Amino acid sequence: MRALPRPARMVLPSLKLPELIQEIRGAKTQAQEREVIQKECAHIRAAFREGDAPQRHRQLAKLLYVHMLGYPAHFGQMECLKLIASPRFTDKRVGYLGAMLLLDERQDAHLLITNSIKNDLSQGTQPVQGLALCTLSTMGSAEMCRDLANEVERLLLRPSPYIRKKAVLAAVHMIRKVPELSDIFLPPCTQLLRERHHGILIGTITLITELCERSPAALPHFRQVVPQLVQILRILVMSGYSAEHSVAGISDPFLQVKILRLLRILGRNHEESSEAMNDMLAQVATNTDTSRNAGNAVLYETVLTIVDIPSASGLRVLAVNILGRFLLNSDKNIRYVALTSLLQLVQSDHSAVQRHRPTVVECLKDPDASLSRRALELSLALVNSSNIRSMTQELQGFLESCPADLRADCASGILLAAERFAPTKRWHIDTIMQVLTTAGAHVRDDAVANLTQLIGGAEELHAYSVCQLYNALAADISQQPLVQVAAWCIGEYGDLLLSGSCEEAEPLQVQEEEVLTLLEKVLQSHLSLPATRGYALTALMKLSTRIQGDNNRIRQIVSIYGSCLDIELQQRAVEYNALFRKYDHMRPAILEKMPLVEHGGPQDDEAGEGKEEPWNPNRESQSPTKTPTANLLDLLDLLNGASGDAQPPPALDLTPGGSLLHLLDLPSTTPSLAPIPGLKVFDREGLQINLSFVRPPEIPALLLITATASNTSKSDVTHFVCQAAVPKSFQLQLQIPSGDTVPAQGGPPITQVLRVLNPNKAPLRMRLKLTYNHFGQSVQEIFEVKDFPPDTWQ
């Protein structure tokens, strides 16, 4: 019995591309759009299976439109290969377009079109060769570039400008993918520089730039064409190259920028090439119109070229002045670029940048957060011994009104500048106190220790300091670092406060009860941290030996905290109660004033002469060496001025040679320091990072780490940036590096100093982040360094 034939299904006709676009645009919901696309994709699949060659390119065109809308179209990849192999131009056009959209290096199918591209490059017509070159420039893999490099090299010298332009762009892509192919493209580039065709010329400049950046061997070859490049730039600046490529009255700014960037690469570390371009750079800098953004772009590229080559000093001053004019521009982007560039130049051209200090300070008031932050960084970098007073005044004014996210950076910057360039001790103390009053919650952790040590080492300013701090504490107890310093100072020099010996115009009259009431207020305040209460409790104990009245009130206050929930505060109160009950006869000796901090130079008697002598803060000992006497006192645990989670004031430590050491007849000699071995932390493709260590004898808690980056490979390491992070118990400060380019083949290394403060002498751990460009690729490395030598922290 014969089977009956199956009834034929009704197949809806396939839509044309304009009709499909209209249907999709007419869909009112996403579900309707998906339904239209699914139906049409089914028709396209059926057409591909049936092998309808004349209509294959129309079906693929619709599929490419669906792909651009974000829907899957991977089933059209093999159809692209069939269309590329077709002899018809209409098929090749859609096939190459589909290859550029649907194929990439991650799919093996892209290798199947290599032969088709090779045949089209060798035998095809100009339109077909152009399609093949565009496809190669878009999705050519390293394997394809190696196979087709010779064909592209031959097309670079073809008579047709259309083909040469596209061949140059394909060569640029090949060099980026396979830098070792640079030798093939060196000879044609010199001849292509003589072209008058704009597209070919700008493409050739781009190709030479890629060759120079990725192949150091190409630099000597192209340094010979510097006069030719200078001549092209002179024609652009003086007479104009092509009116159709002018932008806002600037003759072809894109080509000018490309040439300037190439000149910067060729003139770097090469005196002869730099001299050949100096005059032309000066002409560009003086003749370019700054009223248009295109002119500003050319000027900025000129500035970068001037500062990156061995140019004359007058030319560098001209470059800095151009950046200074940028600061007056109304465009925020231009001002930001100028601030960033001046910050990079402040080390090499400090005096030239200093001329624009008033304009930089005005940028602090800009409401834009990124501009004010960059202006703050530049302002801090401009501070020196001659302008410390005026710059600090401006920065303190900015600190009062700056956004919260900038307060910590501003406060830390002012404190560091004051530490380096303070003209007198009194000015230094006033500056730190003002910063603590304005932004005490945002200062560094060592600000309290530094100020207590500074006050302790200035005997002639004890009375002045305690009076100023008492007034500040009476006005505001919310700034915890300020409260801690004030409590310490009142405890140490409370007798000077009560005696009214402050040398102010209006002597301060303070009663004992007022001081005790203020300290009790600090203890009871909900704003006070446990460390702050520890300072206040110790200050009360110190005052028990400095006031003339009865100590019953102090005893009562101390006894209350014997049952405090905070363990550190409770232990401190119990020990102080024991002093009152069992060791009252030892209390005056134990709670006497701490000895002065000793330093190498003679003491300056500022008050006696009625004037303030210049003072160098580096003469002060930042962290006195801990002596056997200090260890003995630690055993008694009676002189801890702060809780366990805060650093005790360094002024409380005893230094070698102190009076107590002589009483105990303990040795005070300091052993000689052995050199600390270095450490290699990074080695990849010729780039090495080595760390060397130095611990200054006068600051045992400070470790100076010098990171040295060297390069033994054949390619320069450019845009090198090293960032570091340490645990919260450490303090890290990164100095400005000596450069951002590590020359190839063992050239001069670049160095960067890292200052690490380790008050707790904890084992050092550090995380490093390196970002740089090497062999034409951007590299980022993040790693942790743990195996520091024990001498760096013990």
* Biggest pleated-sheet summary: 5 strands, antiparallel
Dominant shape: elongated
Q: What level of helicity do the residues show?
A: 40-55%
Strand arrangement, major sheet? 1-2-3-6-5
> Helical element count?
35
- Give the overall average pLDDT: 81
Beta content comes to 5-15%
Extended strand count: 8
Spans where pLDDT lies below 50 across 5 or more residues: 6-11, 599-672
Rg on CA atoms, Å = 37 Å
Distance between the termini: 100 Å
Structural class: alpha+beta
Tell me briefly what this model is.
It contains 35 helices and 8 strands.
What would you note in describing this structure?
Its main location: membrane. Helix 1 (17-26) packs antiparallel against helix 2 (30-50), helix 6 (114-123) runs antiparallel to helix 7 (126-139) and helix 16 (293-308) packs antiparallel against helix 17 (313-326). The protein has a five-stranded antiparallel β-sheet with strand order 1-2-3-6-5, with no helix packed on it. It has a three-stranded antiparallel β-sheet with strand order 4-7-8, with no helix packed on it. Among the domains are: 459-591, no CATH class; 676-792, Gamma-adaptin ear (GAE) domain (Immunoglobulin-like), CATH 2.60.40. The protein is of the alpha+beta class and 794 residues long. It is elongated, with a radius of gyration of 37 Å. A hairpin with a 2-residue loop joins strand 7 and strand 8 (777-785). The termini are far apart. It contains 35 helices and eight strands.
